Every structure is written in C-alpha cells, then in structure tokens.
Amino acid sequence: FINRDGIDFSDAQNMQPVQ
C-alpha cells in the first residue's frame, strides 16, 4: 500500500519502505 506520506510499502506486515 502507499501511506499518507506517499511511501510505497510492498510488505505491509513488516512496514518496510520500498527503496
């Protein structure tokens, strides 16, 4: 998903931002 800051999190369980 994409959070409110526009960061794309492909792994919602670990909440690791996609670099």
UniProtKB/TrEMBL annotation:
It comes from the Eukaryota. Residues 1-19 form the PITH domain. This is PITH domain-containing protein. It comes from Nymphaea colorata (pocket water lily).
